């Protein structure tokens, strides 16, 4: 089975030695649990949702059985309009749906410095799109780095980030994979074999 991990630098494994990024760690985690899966690295550093929309069609090769979408972080870093992010993600998920592939959407959260209206518009688009496209939904890519889910502590994440304060280090990726893995297994269970 082939799972396309479609995203940006968080997917690509920016700043990490080969074998320590999200894709190889996730594939190892899944295989250790008996999943016969290859995870394809469809991560492009710096990619926005617009970039993802422009490349999703040719990324969905005939051997892809399921897709995990993790995009939006660079839209946030650039302060792009959440309406455009929504339109682009909707286009990506629609392209996946046209091919009748099971999909997962992994959310991002806007920081408060863009204002409450921006934050609500951005944060709200992920659950709404996941529901509209019947995608497995993961609310937050980075939440596993912030300790207690009931009282997340962004300061706690520092130990699991690289020096840039944005990208997870190898230990951070391992924590993300531990949290993400069971939901990826749910996604793979949707694949018609």
Automatic annotation (TrEMBL):
A Pfam family this chain is assigned to: Lipase_GDSL_2
GO MF terms, alphabetically ordered: arylesterase activity; phosphatidylcholine lysophospholipase activity
Principal EC category: hydrolase
Residue ranges occupied by any SGNH hydrolase-type esterase domain in the UniProt entry: 5-174
CDD domains assigned: Lysophospholipase_L1_like
Enzyme Commission number: 3.1.1.2
Alphabetical UniProt keywords: Hydrolase
Top-level lineage group: Bacteria
UniProt name for this protein: Arylesterase
Protein species of origin: Pseudooceanicola marinus
């Amino acid at each position: 089975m082939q799972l396309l991990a479609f995203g940006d630098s968080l997917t690509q494994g920016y700043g990490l030695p080969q074998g320590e990024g999200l894709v190889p760690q996730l594939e190892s985690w899944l295989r250790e649990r008996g999943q016969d899966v290859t995870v394809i690295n469809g991560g492009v550093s710096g990619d926005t949702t617009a970039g993802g929309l422009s490349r999703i069609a040719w990324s969905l090769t005939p051997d892809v059985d399921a897709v995990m979408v993790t995009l939006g972080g660079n839209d946030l870093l650039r302060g792009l309009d959440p309406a455009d992010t929504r339109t682009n993600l909707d286009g990506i998920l629609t392209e996946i749906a046209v091919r009748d592939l099971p999909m997962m959407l992994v959310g991002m959260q806007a920081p408060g410095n863009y204002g409450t209206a921006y934050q609500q518009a951005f944060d709200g688009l992920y659950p709404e799109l996941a529901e509209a496209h019947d995608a497995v939904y993961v609310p937050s890519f980075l939440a596993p780095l912030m300790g207690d889910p009931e009282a997340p502590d962004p300061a706690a994440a520092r130990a699991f980030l690289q020096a840039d304060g944005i990208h997870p280090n190898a230990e951070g990726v391992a924590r993300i994979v531990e949290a993400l893995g069971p939901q990826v297994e749910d996604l793979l269970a949707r694949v018609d074999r």
